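Subject: Sanity check before I submit

Could someone independently write out the structure tokens for this chain? I want to compare against mine line by line before I put it in a report. The sequence has 128 residues.
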Amino acid sequence: MVERSPAREEPADDRLGPVFAALADPTRRRILGRLRDGAATVSALADPFPMSFAAVSKHVRVLERAGLVRREVHGREHRLSLEAAPLREAAAWTLGYRDFWEPRLDALDALLRREKRREPRRPRRRRR
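---
Independent answer below. Compare away.
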């Protein structure tokens, strides 16, 4: 058995770029969603997608480079599994901005509610 794990020891900020880039694509997010249920072969992952096996393999390689997927090779079979640690790092990074955004979003919500209460309703025009 050969186990490959592309994640290197780098500062968290250096690792987040590839993680967010990988997560930006809906196909890769669907692949990760499937791997959340357990390990799978590349062939099994490729089945539901309306694209070539080679295209799915490219998506898998992006996920591997981001450290989101681990590949285990048993003879000719390549089994992929989800690596959650980079997702935890990305979630922790985004949560660090929660204190910044929540008060601003609350203030925006309050402003919009006030504006809505002040805004007189316009009469509807009749269609002819």
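---
OP: Matches mine. For the report I'm noting this point. The first helix runs from residue 12 to 23.
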